Amino acid sequence: MDFEEFLQHFRSDDLSYALKSLKLPTTGNKPDRVSRLVDLEKTEAEVKNILRAFRVDDVKRAVKSVGLL
């Protein structure tokens, strides 16, 4: 599973929260928000730094939905 696939397991509101924390636009639908985070990862940020922008419970929910927790 790549980072983009993993991001699909977050709720749209979770993605918006992370984007806001990273000072990126929060507009658009879920695919738009995922795309912004993937672009950030490809250009300048490490995955771990992007994941830090999410609330802990949001990351736990996503990890659990893919069966890693």
Basic shape: globular
The first-to-last residue Cα distance is 15 Å
Number of domain units: 1
Residues in β-strands, percent: under 5%
Low-pLDDT segments, ≥5 res: none
The structural class is mainly alpha
Which sequence of SSEs, written as H and E, runs from N to C?
A: HHHHH
Largest sheet: none
Q: How many individual β-strands?
A: 0
Return Rg in Å: 11 Å
Number of helices: 5
Mean pLDDT: 95
Helical content (DSSP H or I, runs of 4+): 55-70%
Quickly list its features.
mainly alpha, single chain, 69 residues, 64% helix, 5 helices
Detail the topology: elements first, then pairings:
Blueprint: H1 3-7, H2 12-21, H3 30-43, H4 47-51, H5 56-65
Helix pairs in contact: 2-3
Describe the structure.
By secondary structure, the protein is an all-alpha fold. The protein has one domain. It has five helices and no strands. The chain has helices at residues 3-7, 12-21, 30-43, 47-51, 56-65. Helix 2 (12-21) packs across helix 3 (30-43). The chain is globular and about 30 Å long. The mean pLDDT is 95.
Short description:
The chain is an all-alpha fold.
